[in-house]
Amino acid sequence: MAVRATVGRFPENQEALESSGIPWGVTVTPFAGKDENGSPPAYGSDGNLLPRCENCWAYYNTFCDQEQWAWTCALCGTLNGLSSQAIARYSLPHSCAENLSSFIDLELPLDESEEMQARLVYVAAVDLSSSEEFLELIKSALLAALEALGPGSLFGLATFSHKVGLFDVQGPIPVVKNVLIPPDSDGGLPIELDDVMPLSSFLAPVDTCKDRIASALETLKPTNSWERTTAAGQGVDGVLLGGRGFGVAMEALLNYLGSEYGNTFALGRIFAFLSGPPDFGAGELDTRRYGEQYASKGEDADLALLPEQTPFYKDLATVAVQAGVCVDIFAVTNEYTDLASLKFLSIESGGSLFLYTNTDNSTLPQDMYRMLSRPYAFNCVLRLRTSSEFKVGNSYGHFFPDPQYENVQHIICCDSFATYAYDFDFANDSGFSRHTTELPMLQIAFQYTVVVPPDELSKSTSSSANRNKHSLQRRLRIHTLQFTTAHNINEVYDSVDPEVVLSILVHKVILISLEQGVREGRVLLNDWLVLLTARYNDACKLLQFERGNSATAHVDVAFSQCPQLQPLPRLVFALLRNPLLRLHEEGVHPDYRIYLQCLFSALEPSSLHRAIYPILTSFATPDKQAFPRHSLSRAALITSGSPIFFLDAFTTLIVFYSSTADPALPFPPPQDCLLRTTINKLKQERCITPTLMFIRGGQDDSTIFENYLIEEQDVEGSGFTSVMGFVSFLEEINHGVLEYLK
C-alpha cells in the first residue's frame, strides 16, 4: 500500500493552507505490494483480534502509547482498555506484526461458506453485431485470457446482438441456445437465462474444457445485417435500427450470475466486447447527439457529450456490485459509442474501460493476458481515518461509496496499480496547534480477499484435503502514517510532491469538466497556476523583506527559489495540451476523452506524470545513456547533440534516431542492449501494453514523435505557432499574476 501526500509537511491551519495555494491530499494504491518507501508490510495472523479505539474505531498501531492494561489511540487520544487476550498477546511485543511495523497485513478468519466457494468465474460477452475482423481479434484475446486464468476457474461464453446466446461447452460439441430480445423490450428478456440453460452447464471448468472453449470461439460469426434489421423491425422515420442489445444482455447476465454469488463463486468478472453503441432494447443509446446539431443549436459540445444520457448503466453497476460481479468493457470501434453513458458499468463495479480505435494494431490480447495474470484482490473495503484536527474532503477513484458509512469505499476488484485519491479540510479553525506534541496522523485500512495457491497456504490450514486446491484468504492491510507540520510557507513548498499535486488536479479538472464542461476545466487549471504563482511570489517577497531586500515588481513564474515547485508550470501546460482538456472543435473524439478520464483517474502519480508530460531520455549509443531527462522541445533535441532519443508517454514508447545519427549505429536497437533492457522493464511494469515504435528521422514519418514535443506548440490550439508555446504560456501566467495582485 503506497501512500503519497501532496506535501510532506502539512500546513498548520486553514490560513496557511489557503496562503500556500497547494492542494492538500494524498493518493493511495492499496494493493501495491510495497509502501511508498519500497518496504513490504509485516505479515501476521489473527487480524480479528487487533484492538480498536472505542471512540474513532482506528486500529491499534506502533504510534499508540501502550501501558500494561491500556493503550492510547494515536489518532484521537482516547485511552482504551486491553482485553486479557490482548495483554497476553502483547507481553511478547516482537511476536506481533502490529508492534513491529506501522504497515501490516494480517490474515482474518473465514466463515465456512467463504471457505466453500473459492472459485472465480469469468464470462465473455461478445458482440456479434460486428465484423469478421472484430471477432478474430476477440478470439485471440480470449485465447490469451484462457492461458492466464488460474486453476479452478470457471468460464462462460455468451453472445449478444438482437438475441442473447449462451454456450454449453462441456459436451463433445459446443451447443448454443439463443433467446430473442423483443423489439419493444423496455426491460428484460421474455425468459430467465436460468430456464434457457442451467448455470452449471454454462460455466465450464477451464482446467478440463480449455480446448472445447477454443472450439466454441471458432464458431462465432457476425449476425448479418438482414437478420438484425428484420428482428429489430422498422426504426425511427423508416430508418432500420441496428441490433446490438447490450443493455438487455448485461442485465440478464448479471441476474443470472448474481443468483449464485457466494455459493458457486467468490468473484465474477464479465468481459464485455463492444464493436459499437448499444442500439436495441433496454439501455439503447441515441448516438445522434454526436452530430452536427450542436453546431446549429449553439450548444457546448464539450459539455453536452460528457454527461450520461441515461441512468441505465449506472443503475446496472449497482446490480453488478450486489451480484459480486466486476465488468470490464473493451470497446473496439472508431464510431461514437457514448462511453460517457457506458463507463459507469465498468468503473463503479471495479472494472476497467478500454478503447481501441481499430483492429489492426490493437493490443487487446496482450492487455487481457496482462490484466488476468497479475495478482488482484476482490470484495475490498477501503477506509481512511485522520487524527481529529483534519478530515477527508473529497474522495476520487473507481469505487462504490458505502450507502451507510462516510469515507468507506467498496471495490469489487482491485489490482496492484489501482489508485485512489483524497483531499483534506481542517476540522476546526485552530488546525494543528504549535503548543502540542501531537502530530497529524493518517490511517488507511484495506480489507480484501485473495485466492491463494496450495503451496502458499499457511501451514496452520494445510490439511490433506486443502493441499491440492486453491483457497480464499481474507486479509486486513493497515498503513498508519505520521506527518509533521510546517512552521512557515517555505517549509510547505519545500515538501511538495509535484506528481501527487498533478494527480489531485487531474481529478478536480475531470469533475469540473463533467459538471460544467471542458472550458471550465481549463479555466480552473489556469486560475490555479496563477493563484499558486501569486502566493509563492508573495511568500518570497516577505522573505526578501525579512532579509532587508526591497520587493520588486518582477514575477518569478519559474519558481526559481523552490525546486519542488519548478515542474508544475510544465505539468499544467502539458495538461492543457492533453486531449483530456483539448476542445471538441480541435478534433478530440468524446469517447477518447472519456477513455482518458477513466484511465487517468486510476493511475498512480508517476504513471500519470508520464501520460501527461512524457519522459524524454537521450542515448549516445544503444548501450550508453547520454542524458536522463530533456524538456519536450525541438530545441532540446538539437542542443543535446545525441543521436538516439527514447520517449516514454505511458501508452506509447518511441525510439527516435535523429537524422544526423551515425548510419553505423544499429537500427532498430539490438535485443541485448541497455536501451532494449530499459524498454522491456518499462513494458513489464505497466498496467496496460504500451505501443512500441521505432522511427528514423529523415527517412520515416516522424510526425507522431514531433507531436509530443509540445513546448513549442500553442496552448490553445494544435500545431506550431509563430510564438514559442511554453514561453508565451509563462508570459500569460505572468500577466495573470500581475492582474491578480492589483
Automatic annotation (TrEMBL):
Pfam families: Sec23_helical, Sec23_trunk. One of its GO terms (molecular function) is SNARE binding. One of its GO terms (cellular component) is endoplasmic reticulum exit site. Signal peptide: none annotated. Residues 497-608 form the Sec23/Sec24 helical domain. One of its GO terms (biological process) is COPII-coated vesicle cargo loading. Residues 120-371 form the Sec23/Sec24 trunk domain. This is Protein transport protein SEC23 D-like. The gene is LOC113726436.
